[in-house]
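This part of the workshop introduces the protein records we will be handling. A record pairs a protein's sequence with a compact description of its fold. Comparing a sequence with its tokens is the quickest way to learn the format. The record below serves as our worked example for the rest of this section:
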Amino acid sequence: MIEEATLDISPQDLVNSQNPYTPHFVDRSTVFTYNSGSKIYELVTPTGQRYVMQSWSQQIDPSLRRSQLSTLGARLSLPSGWHYVTRTLTKTLKVSTLAHDAAVLQDSFDDSYSLES
């Protein structure tokens, strides 16, 4: 991950603040590229679906830093059977929504994730 932007948003602008871990479908044509050797952060559902972090937020915890993302899972209120994992990619990962709507969700810290397709 690299920092591409910083967004200042109000709580009422958040997609999923009141209902974390619930996918929302967004009509967008995007390809997120995570390069080989990059560290990524994922939420894994009980059925094995993987949601890749696309952005982290300081709305809930203003002191949250990138260096803390590896251990964020211990602080999340994950649904039963869900897991937070960190891994270093051995090959490039592309999360594409060119052929379908994006499935996006947020965790209990308002960090955003896209379903790996």
Notes: The mean pLDDT is 87.
